[in-house]
Design a protein that fits this description.
about 525 residues, 18 strands, alpha/beta, single chain
Length: about 525
């Protein structure tokens, strides 16, 4: 049984390693081809052996699954495909017994069009109190045939849909995800009730989806690129919402992590003030290319953004929305950008895997907390999902030009010698596993000292027992061009070679861990990282 980290008490979240579970693709317990809570419960030992401190679940609530569960119909019920509320409560308790906390996902910007509130709003008609919970408006044009404004969608396509009575409703994502009106007190009251519902069931934290989008300009003014304030991103009224949420979380000792995409570092930091969110995702680092100068600048900027408010940084290489790390790092362009995703982009998986191993040690040596997306510990590549099996709405709303996000959501391989690599007992997975997927299976990697899984287990074990890792200061060291080298407290060093040629290691007393073998003369090869002890 894994025990909680010795230096993590009430502030466990400041240096935790948090594993992201996408339930549909983690493990299938009932054999219907869809991952579920029974599957997660059966595989908790994997997470305990890996050495994570917490598990973040993407939405497991009742949902039509138009957008992978981010279209929630009922926050107080588990989707039948995943199980029941009783099973969720058992999972939270069983994880706690293994020293693993549970974080759930809340999607406050919108609900499903099957949510009781929205169904009532459609039935009630124009001018009704039910419609005030959303953004219903009359259209423009002589007959109201044009949408109320020109706001761009977070996905491709329009942001307004017209209903039979002539009014339009706002949806920054898909038409099946109508945006809530956060100026209405009932919306705020309902979400605070949802927080309490899950905190009372032992949940340790909440991840807030699209956290900067909730509040809209009341005038619904047209969007003008580059003009501030933005009509629906980072509105000042958001901070009052999150201060109210923080008061609720503090009653239970729970924490928040926000999905906040903002280019302005000062405005980003406002969300992390002591009475608002505890942490926020670091998307600058996630999107950064495998480039020494860009990575160092991203690290410096991130630490500088967080320092004024005393919040810990967060680090992540991949999640359920972005291209798998080993695939991205094997491409000519190693950055990530939704706008550049395309079918058929070539990649060198051997190179990408070598870089991903080095990036794992870099990330886990940085100050703050780390998020690890399921399958990254196995070195899974992005899968090429056949066109007739793609389910992601991003693909369809792009007119078929965007490959979507299904490639990073393919069900995990567990046992190499079983059907569907052990994901489920007999049902074909909801997304097809590509040929050769079993080569990445947990059982095959567990006995391999050179596997990605072994590297992650060793790195997390060292991070757990070495007090210098996690939250705390970082000091850059002098290093050759193309090499990142920094010190952490207690004489710990991390060196990452992105120079393209072998480099000498700095003086040290012990090699703690390497992402790959050193050269015959003890030098650090290109695209390789090491952890050292200097004294």
């Amino acid at each position: 049984m894994a025990a909680p980290h010795s230096r993590r008490t009430d502030a466990w979240w400041r240096d935790a390693v948090i594993y992201q579970v996408y339930p549909r693709s983690f493990a299938d317990g009932d054999g219907d081809g869809v991952g579920d809570l029974a599957g997660v419960r059966a595989r908790l030992s994997h997470l305990a052996e890996l050495g994570v401190d917490a598990v973040w679940f993407t939405p497991w609530y009742a949902s039509p699954m138009v957008d992978g569960g981010y279209d929630v119909a009922d926050y107080r019920a588990i989707d039948p495909a995943f199980g029941t509320l009783a099973e969720a409560e058992k999972l939270i308790a069983e994880a706690a017994e293994k020293g693993i906390r549970v974080i759930v996902d809340i999607v406050p910007n919108h609900v499903s069009d099957q949510h009781p509130w929205f169904r009532a709003a459609l039935e009630a008609g124009p001018g009704s109190p039910e419609r005030e919970l959303f953004h219903f408006r009359a259209g423009r044009g002589a007959r109201g045939e044009l949408p109320p404004n020109d706001w761009p969608s977070q996905f491709s396509g329009p942001t307004w849909t017209r209903v039979p009575d002539g009014e339009w409703y706002l949806h920054l994502f898909t038409p099946e995800q109508p945006d809530l009106n956060w100026a209405h007190p009932a919306v705020r009251q309902e979400h605070e009730g949802i927080l309490r519902f899950w905190f009372e069931r032992g949940v340790a934290g909440v991840r807030i989806d699209s956290a900067a989008l909730l509040v809209k300009d009341p005038a619904l003014a047209d969007f003008t690129e580059g003009v501030d304030p933005h009509p629906y991103v980072d509105q000042d009224e958001l901070h009052d919402i999150y201060r109210s949420w923080r008061a609720v979380a503090d009653e239970y000792g729970a924490v928040f992590v926000g999905e906040v995409w903002l280019p302005d570092a000062e405005r980003f930091a406002r969300y992390l003030r002591p009475d608002e969110l505890h942490t926020a995702f670091n998307f600058t680092f996630l999107a950064c290319p495998w480039d020494p100068d860009r990575l160092r600048r991203s690290i410096d900027d991130t630490l500088a953004e967080h320092a004024p408010v005393g919040a810990p940084a967060t680090w992540v290489l991949c999640n359920h929305d972005v291209t798998r790390t080993v695939t991205r790092y094997g491409r000519r362009d190693t950055a990530f950008d939704f706008a550049t995703k395309a079918f058929g982009t070539p990649t060198d998986l051997a190179l990408g895997t070598r870089r991903a191993r080095a990036a794992a040690l870099l990330t886990l040596a940085l100050p703050g907390s780390v998020y690890l997306y399921q399958g990254e510990e196995l070195g899974l590549p992005e899968a090429d999902v056949p066109l007739d099996r793609i389910q992601d709405p991003m693909h369809f709303r792009s007119g078929g030009t965007d490959p979507g996000r299904d490639g990073c959501r393919v069900p995990l391989p567990w046992e190499a010698g079983t059907p569907y690599a052990g994901f489920g007992s007999h049902g074909e997975p909801w997304l097809p596993q590509p040929a050769g997927w079993a080569a990445y299976a947990v059982d095959r990697q567990s006995g391999d000292p050179d596997s990605m899984l072994t590297l992650y287990r060793q790195a997390l074990a060292l991070r757990r027992c070495e007090a210098g890792f996690g939250d705390g200061p970082l000091t850059w060291l002098s290093a050759p061009a193309g090499v990142l080298a920094f010190a952490r407290p207690g004489g710990l060093l991390c060196v990452v070679n992105l120079s393209g040629a072998p480099t000498d290691l700095p003086p040290h007393t012990r090699l703690l861990l390497a992402s790959g073998p050193l050269t015959a003369d003890g030098r650090l090869p290109a695209d390789t990282a090491v952890w050292l002890r200097s004294r």
